[in-house]
Structure formats: C-alpha cells, structure tokens
Amino acid sequence: xxxxxIKLFLNTLVTCLVLCYPSAFAQTNEGPAVGQWRxxxxxxxxxxxATDGTMLYCATESGLSTYNTEDHMITAxxxxxxMSDAGLTAIAHDPLSGYTILAYDNxxxxxxxxxxxxxxxxxxIASLIGDKKVNDIAxxxxxxxxxxxxxxxxxxxxxxxxxxxxQFYDGATAGQNSSATIRGNEIYVATSVGVFxxxxxxxFIQNYQTWQQIxxxxxSYICASADNLYVANDRELYRLDTDNSLQRLLEQEHIxxxxxxxxxxxxxxxVSTVDGVPNAGLNLNMQGNVIDSFHNTVDxxxxxxxxxxxxxxxxxxxxxGWGGLRKRTSVTSSDNYSxxxxxxxxxxxxxxxxGDLWLAHGAMSQTWTYQFNYSFFSHYQNGSWAxxxxxxxxxxxxxxxxxxxxxxxxxxxFTGNVYxxxxxxxxxxxxxxxxxxxxxxxxxxxxxxxxxxxxLGDVALDDNGNLWMTNSNATQELKVKTRDGNWFGYHVxxxxxxxxxxxxxxxxxxxxxxxRVNGGIAVYNTNGTLDNKSDDASMMLKAGEGAGNLPNNxxxxxxxxxxxAIWIGTSDGIGIVSCPEQVLQRECESExxxxxxxxxxxxxxxxxxxxxxxxxxxxxxxxxxxxxxGLWLISDDAMEVIDYFTTxxxxxxxxxxxxxxxxxxxxxxxxxxxxxxxxxxGGATEATAEKEKSLLIYPNPVPPGYTGTxxxxxxxxxxxxxxxxxxxxxxYRTTALGGQAVWNGKDYTGRGVQTGVYLIFAIxxxxxxxxxxxxxxxx
Length: 779
Hints:
By secondary structure, this protein is mainly β. Among the domains are: 124 residues, Immunoglobulin-like; 292 residues, YVTN repeat-like/Quinoprotein amine dehydrogenase (Methylamine Dehydrogenase, Chain H, 7 Propeller), CATH 2.130.10.10; 119 residues, no CATH class. Strand 28 and strand 29 form a beta hairpin. The longest helix has 19 residues.
C-alpha cells in the first residue's frame, strides 16, 4: 500500500513540476564534485625559481606557483591539479621546447607546459643504488641536464625519456654531481671530484674519459653568465677563466646557489649561520665586487633577473607567511607574489563546518616532545586565510614559552569562541570580537620538571557548552571550564602517570581520554555534578581480557560513532566499545572485531599490526582511518573496505596521516599530513532532522562530457532517493548516505543517461516527508 501511495505521488507531481514550477528547486555549482580533491598548501617555502622571461615558475615544498608579469595572474598547482608529487627540489625552463622541468625529492620528474603536467617516473622507479635526488637542472636546446648523486642524467624533453647517465671519477673515486651549466657550445659540471667540461656535440659524451677535468677541487655550484663562468663551494666563490685557471673572488658563509645576472655578473644566494650576518642575495661583477644586493628577513634559494632589471627570488625564510615568490623592491624590502594559502604546511588538527576551517599548525611526536612550531593556528573562509601567531604571542605573558598548537575547536552553538590547545602555553580563547585570552598559571598546571610548559593535549565541548581539557602530567590531568567561567580539575586514580591526550565525550556525558604514553584509556564520570567529586566514578581500560581488552596500551586516537560506540586506535589495530555506558561497572570491554579484507590471506583483528593515528566518522557512520600507510574508508560495521588512498593513487602529499576531520555539512574529508592539508569530497554528510526546503544538487546542470559523481544534499537521514525521467519512468534508485545521496549518472543497466531533465524525489524511510529536485543533463 505504501509503495502504491508513493508511486501515485510521483506520477501526480511530474506534470506539475515541469509545467508549474520550472525553477523552484535549488541548484548549486559550489565546491568540488564528490570524489574530487582540493589542496590547502602553503606556497611560502620556496625551493627554486625559473623563468621564460615573462612567466615566473616558483618551486616550493608543496607544489608549483606561477606568476605572469604581463597579466599579473598568480596560479597555484599541486597533486590535486595534476602534479605527480609534492616536494620540489629543482626547477628549470627550456626555451626551445617551452617546457618547465620539475624534480621532486623522491627523484620523480614532471614536465610542465600549457597548464598540463607530463610525468617521467623512470629515475624514481629505477632500481639503482645511490642518491637519486636531483640537486640542480640545466637546459639547452630540448635537453635537460640533471645533476644527481648518481651522475649527470640527460633527458630528451620532447620524447619525455632519459637519454643517458654520465658518472664522473677522479681515479677510482666516483663523484656526485651538484650542478651543470652551458657556456657557448660547452657544458660544464661541478662534482665532488672536480669540475669537468666537454662539447655539447661530443658523440661520446656518455664516457666521462672524453671530458676534460679542469680541477679536482670539489664544487657545489657552477653558473655561466654571458662569457663569464663562476664556481663556488660552501664558502668560496671563484671565476673560471677561459684558460681554465681559477680566480678566487671572495669568501662568504654560507653560499647556497649561483644564478646569472646582467652583463656577465653573478647573483649569489647567501644563507648565513653567523650571528649578525644577514641572509642575502649578492650581485657581483667579474672582479668579485658587490654591485647590488638585498637582505633583511630573506632566505633566497634561487634568483632570476629579468631583462627589465627586476630581481625575483624563491624565498624559504622561516617566518609565517613570508617566503615564496618575491620581487626585490629595495635593498631591505620585497613584495610577495605567492598564491593564497596557509602560512605553512604544518597541519596537525582541524575544526571544520560548512567551509569554516580552523587549522592547528603544531605537531607532537609520539613520545610527546616539542616540535617548536610557532605558527600556532590559522582560519580559512571564503578563499581567505588569517594567521593568529602574532596575536598568540601578544596574549602570552612576557618572556613566556609558547609553541605547538596541537588541537583546536570552535563553539558554534553558544559563544562562537575558538579554543586552541597549545602544548607549550596552555589554553588560548579567541572571541568573535577578536580579543584573545591565554589561560595558563592559575588554571592549567605546569608539567613537573618542565615548569615553563602548560601541556594541553586536547579540548572538547559537552552538550552544555562546558569546555573540557586534558592537562598532561598534571596532578589533575582532566580540566573543565564551565560556560560561566568556573574551573574544576579531576584525576583518574589508576592513571598513575597522569598523562592525557585526545578525548571524546560519550552519549552519557562520560569523558574518555587517551593516557599517553602506553597508558591505555581513562574514563571519568562526574555524574552531572561538576563541583561535587564525591559521586564521581572513573576507571582505566587497558590491554588484556578483564582489563579493558584493548588491542594494546599504546593508544593514539579515539572517536565516537553515530551509534554511540567508542572506537579506539592503537599502534596495533582498533578496539570498539559498543556499550560505553557500562564500562564503569566493568560490564563492557573493547571488542577486537575479526575482519577479512581483500588481499588478506586470513582473517584477523581490525587493523591488526597497523598503527592507527586517526579515526573520523562521516554522516553515514562510515569510518575514515588514518595510518602511516595511507587513508582507509571502511563501512559502518568495519566489515568492508570502501576505499584506500595513498600517494600512489590519489593527490595525498604523504602516506603518513596525522589527523582526519569531516565537514558535516559538505561531507569534505580533511586530511592533515606532514606535507600539508588536503580535502576529499566524500559521499556522506550529516543528516538533517527534517528535510531541507529544497535539495542542493551538484553539478546542476551537468556539463557536457562530465563523468564524475552527482551529489544530492539536504536530505533527511537515509532517505529513499528515486530519479525519474520527464515522463515519470524510474531511472535510478538509491539510499542517502547520512544527509547526502550520490549518483553516477547511469541507469540500472549501466548506460549513461541521455540529455534532458530529470526529477529527483527524496522520501523519508517511513514515507512521512517528501522533497523534490530537478536536474538538467547536457550532452
């Protein structure tokens, strides 16, 4: 009977929808489609620079940025937009072919032209013994010369293939290539066993014995500028004359790179380690006299001087938001031309809702040692980034130690405050009016033996808006700040080391927190009376039947799923507590669920023998598992692997996953790695209590040639979704994943649907609520 009612409802509405309400349904083209990636990288860590005279190509630790000096357009590129890897170590441009050559720290190589990347993985995948890292690149007439620890590798750019490898020797000692340059019709290379040269058209160029060894003195940098040739080691700059004699020009600590200047001069990057001697870019003539320079808060890694005399450099200066692509404006100043992004790539925690992103930049080792990160936290919204490092320092007591923001949360229900847990510095509270307060002495306890630190491990908000904190190594390792400003502290007696890290609050209001290191899990129940400890209860869960049955005591993360179960990630798999309200009575323990995934010879405990760094739960109660070996998506009951992402099959910049958080509104899965933050548009969102007024459909209209997934949002939980053509014929049927449904644009036979208008009907599982949307598909 219910199915008949639904069918009648669908048929009755079809004509009305088409004729009466042609534009009544929400359409959206915002954000990426389901299954697509975005990167949130910093382009301030410049590692190299190249130019074709108009376009500047800046290599960074995250990816590539370009700046067009004519139309002033800045563009950012990463793995999410076609690059093969992250972590560029060398870059050069070949005028003949028009390609820019990119080398990564894992020896992977890309060619870039016309917004497209072409990969040459041969060196990376080659089974060769030795250092394959590309130290420098020179180009000439369609060939790229890569200086590596294995020798000089030549690449045919148009054919996209490695042409030959040349190893240099001094007697029986093999040399490592550092740099190469072209002067006239000759190529020169700087190696650890001296400087060598030969003609570019040498038919036996692969035989190093056909090269002339000019000197056996080791050099790291070599550069031709007009008719002049310069070489340098870490401390000394020389001119190499046409008679092959070396003329020492000056001593300077620490030389980092040589680049051609105007009229045969040379630009030298100086990264000084001497107090009072600034990092600088120095321009010297052939006599070694400084004729131009720039300095003051810079760390230049490569310099390009254009025909108009302007000086550009790739800057790696270690100060939030400073480096990247910069243009010298005076001896002591420069302007930034980097893409919009966070101040640095360090990402350790996120709070995210409907695109409102707060990012904690700090990090912490598994042994809880300082990482001395001073970028603290940043905010991203509507395409703009703001960093709060300066405000954190201003809010801290004078001369007080503050570093490593490792957790962040926003109270979006009551106050709008943002709370940052700083491992060295306590709690920072940022109010909507922009004012910031630091809570440490008098609120947070100091760590014994380290009186300058106030070690917060995590922050969490309960249903009443009270802020809970773990205060590691304190006499009361669990703290709470109530909404009215009162503070209380608690201690789990069995937690003898008083270590405390990540936490969750279960459906009964009990606080669960990780007892780092190797301490298991602590559970604390205030019985609803924060100021009365006499009725409180607590316990520890550890490995072993009867003690908690955890996979082991090295607990790294904890999460609560949609059913209220507590998922516990350890260095040896995952334990699941399905009845958390009963643990204090010792009537419930962790389940070591047995699963068998594809590729496994035998069944085993969930993620057994794997380190689990992070667990996040999406709107469909599926679990996203972050490990040192990539990111997993498993079903709600953990019995099925839905997806597995690594650097090899996705835009992930690293296989090491620190933290996973999910935007409940958009379904975006945010992944923090050692090489930066990326987001994946997942298929599940948080369900709404009721249907939205209108469905949000993306993309709509569907563009010609689109082969991605179509997302339908604004649904009640697990709604029944039916897609029909304009005549009311059923094309596809599915069930929402939480508050979102996805469709691959194909009918039940697997054929792509034709151009036209399609109607989408969303019906609650009990038939009580109904919603309708319209989708246009173009050829």
